[in-house]
Amino acid sequence: MDALLKIGVFARRSRLSLKALRLYDRLGLLTPRHVDAQTGYRWYEESQLETARLVGTLRRLDIPLSTIAEIISAPSPHAAEMITRYWQTIERDMSVRRELVSHLLGTMRGDTPDTTAVAVRDVLPQQVLTEQRHTTVDTLSCWLGGAFGRLHKAAADLGGPAGHPFAVYYGDVSEDSDGPVEVCVPISLDVTPVAKFAVRHEPAHREAYLRLRRAQVEFPQILSAYDLVTHWISQRELNMTGAPREVYFADFASAEPDDQVCDVAIPVG
What we know:
This protein is an alpha+beta fold and 269 residues long. It has helices at residues 7-14, 18-26, 49-60, 65-73, 76-109, 137-156, 222-235, and strands spanning 4-6, 34-35, 42-45, 119-123, 126-133, 166-169, 181-187, 198-202, 205-213, 245-248, 260-268.
């Protein structure tokens, strides 16, 4: 058996405070090997130092204690994968915040919006499978993913999608507003869709659009893209002839922050 270390010695060698060690004990993260029944004094094994230092390092990365508990109880390769996934999430979040701060500072300084990246294109008529819902921003991503999945599966049974899927926003979506939003997956004009899915005709139109990277798509940063396209339309004294939409041409879930994934588009005339 390893030598037992008093809590004070263990604290110094693990570089953790007594307060932290008591907290980790209460949470079951780092339990002493022996607690004196009379004094309540805690003793730790020397072999626990490696775990204690790992917990301390993970906390310096601001990883939640609940996640740390899962990491230290997992086999080493799996634990490394968990840390990798957590850090990738943090990096994506920071990319989104960086984009949002840049937009916010530009707005506060009164900078003239740079609309040079906005382009225009003609869209051919399409037949689309659709699913529509009222949703706030809190549940939007989850519903979008599910709806796109259901419609893609239905389209596969009809010969496959005939174009990029898109989401149409008929009203504002925020913490307080709920759209509605319509998810659309194009299918061939020659196909007769199954009755259980709604279908409609998307007319030919011209649209102004702005291509976005993965980091720019998160709410509320994506609102700045809508602002830029709207500003571009206003500059040219055009009219918006349809609801704004997001056209997805890449796998959003697996994309890196700098990968281009979708277009924010508004029909114009």
